[in-house]
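The authors assume throughout that readers already know how a fold can be written as discrete tokens. For illustration, here is how one protein appears when written out as sequence plus structure tokens:
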Amino acid sequence: MTFYLQKFAYTIWWNLLLLTLGSVILAVALKGIVVQHQFIPGGVFGAGLLIYYVTPVLSAGILYFLLNIPLFILGWMYVSRRFFLYSMYAMVVATLAYELMPIDLGIQNQFYAAVAAGCIGGLGCGIVLRSLGSNGGLDVVAVMLNQKYNLGIGKFYFVVNFLLFSVSLFIIKIDLVIASLILVFIMSYVIEYTLSMFNNRKLVLIISEHNEEIAKDLMHRLKVGATFLRGRGAYSGQDKNIIMTITNNIMLKQLEQAVFSIDQQAIFIVENTFNVLGTSFSHRKIY
């Protein structure tokens, strides 16, 4: 079952669905909130909006499209042709949705608007980035750095956008810059959360004198895989097996109950891990 789900994630139709849905949601946030309050959402679209606020000759959507061209060349050269085509599709959908949708969500309070735009825009970007493409702009560079150096995509946005907002201080009111920073901070967090959704795992280490019994219970009753790691007590100097297993939030409480029902003196260590790659877990994402 897991194999077929992993294979499905690489199908064209699934990726087009993610790209379309995410791009339209992003366009709703930009057209319905960001432009209405004259925020700077960061990234290439933020740069386009800044130009639009100063010289409104071309619409922000068209400027976004034009500014993306050199970045898409990088995507073609350094990521993959498939990534380029998917990202081009997402950028066209986002541009058309922005240009054609006459939408205003009607949020009057500036702070509420920044929070809402960050949540909606981050969700849209996150959905797109769960595909094999991107929305273009900084996404292209972010994916390149993530693939090469494992740099968090949301963190990359925040650092680069700091430079954009430094320039914005000379062009728009400081209240709008602060609200835009709130927007981008929330957006970065929501992107990271959306990307980790359904992939977040718990690494569990169990130290017990009854490790054989616990391991059998985990494997046979809970159907959870387990591995023995060799350890040695620093004080006693005795060798012992440490159980290592990987689970999710849903199974974690059952795992805990199973361990302590066998050994009340067990040590139960839980570590959050963003993603686990392997046959029975997530499939390695190749752009």
Q: What stands out?
A: The two ends are 23 Å apart (CA to CA).
